[in-house]
Amino acid sequence: MFLLQAPQEEADALADLIRRMRREVHTCSRCFHFTDGELCSICSDPARANGILCVVESTGDLLAIENSGAFKGRYHVLQGVLSPLEAVGPEDLRIRELLNRIPAEGIREVILATNPSNEGEATAHYLLRLLKDRGVQVSRIAYGIPMGGDLKYTDRVTLERAMKGRREF
Amino acid sequence: MKTTHTEAIILSAKDHGESDRLIRFFDQENGCLRGVAKGARKSRERFAHSFETFSVVHMKYVERRGRIWIEASRLAEPFLALRDDLERWGYAALVTELVLEMVPEGEPNTPLFFLVKETYGRLSEDREPLNVLLLFLFRFLHIMGYLPAMDACCRCGRRVSEATRWWWTVKDGVFYCPDHRSFDKGEISLDLGTVILIRRSRELPLPTVWRLFFTREKQRALLEVLVHWVKGLIQKDLNSIRVLRQLTPSS
Fold it and tell me: Can you tell me the ipTM of this complex?
């Protein structure tokens, strides 16, 4: 309704922008985050820490971590997760490119930040199997109770993982 | 409007619209169904962790205007160990895919529900996951009515105990003694011990069937034959087998 009632030039401008986005935005040749240049803003930022790589499923996950401000290293976007029922295997993800980046960029630590879902967990285990003999430290993001959460209302899987992943205080 | 409280196995979950999820599940009493979980992508309380594939949940749903609406779901057993081992995880995906592809929706099948649930559990902990998968496959194909009787030669009626080697033409579902084998490309040779194991895999009570053991040399060959047969039955490739071969090249 809004577009039908908006001035013609506004609707045209929006259509032009969508066309331009489709034409110009593609994935970064290094990390597979979206960009309109050869490298994305993160890969081309000299201030980011080298040697530490955070592996995420999607650009949405990358943006969530970026917004938190908790990580200042480099990223690698897998563009999905393993999913046998959907016929998504290792060859359909950006795993070969991830393995190539490790020696090429002198990566010392890989943080596996796939979601704690069935597919995300299995993908993390698959990556661990590939990475463990490549001379890098491999870590997995922690599981636990969200800030402001209430133990009474927390599901049993999260509680179990939070107890297993407890650390000295 | 009918409300159902049940135990269910989550077979698949997909995003549906802005905030809903479309869930395919195996209801203990009413068979394979699909329902919409309204607001499941946003709600953390009603549906926390409960729509993960291979999970057993306690579910409440209502049927309204010919559709199923999932009102609440609580995780009962997530079988977390499956995620730590890609071979077991791939086998669980194959089990799930076979149910999704071959079990008609809306037809109650309680024995199959318990077979699937028990198979996930065994795949999580048994030392021989491929043996568990084979036992599932034979029992599943028996419950679905595809497995031949294997008690006598289909041509001459010779009893199974009267020969030590038998020939099974899988795609035609026929079973022959050595004198009447078809020499068909798809036939498989079975020794008497394996024939007896296959027969017992469908006769024994579910809790004890897992004691049966196919020798390791035969496991791969049997899986190949069964997968080939199933692909013929459903007239398509199995996604999980394609991915499993990438994940564990030896499988």
Answer: 0.88
Alpha-carbon gap: B229 to the closest alpha carbon of chain A (Å) = 19
Q: So what's the pLDDT on residue A146?
A: 84
Q: Residue B44 pLDDT more than 80? A: no
From the list A89, A121, A125, the residue facing B246 with the nearest CB is A89
A39 burial level (CB within 10 Å; 0-12, 13-18, 19+): middle
Structure tokens at A22: 């489709």
- Shortest CA gap A90–chain B (Å): 7
Task: Give mean pLDDT, residues B149-168.
Answer: 92
pTM given for the model: 0.90
Domains and CATH numbers, chain B: 2-77 (2.40.50.140), 81-147+187-247 (1.20.1440.120)
Residue B208 one-letter amino acid: T
Average pLDDT, stretch B136-160?
Answer: 93
* Nearest CA distance, A156 vs chain B (angstrom): 8
Dump pLDDT digits (tens) for B83-131.
999 999 999 999 999 999 999 999 999 999 999 999 999 999 999 999 9
Distance CA B180, CA B116 (A): 36
Sign of CA dihedral B29, B33, B39, B40: positive
Q: Is A22 helix (H, G, I), strand (E, B) or coil?
A: helix
Say if the Cβ atoms of B247 and A126 lie within 8 Å. Answer: yes
Q: Domains, chain A, ranges and CATH?
A: 27-143+150-164 (3.40.1360.10)
Mean residue pLDDT across chain B: 92
Compare CB distances from A155 to B48, B239, B240 and report the shortest one's residue.
B48
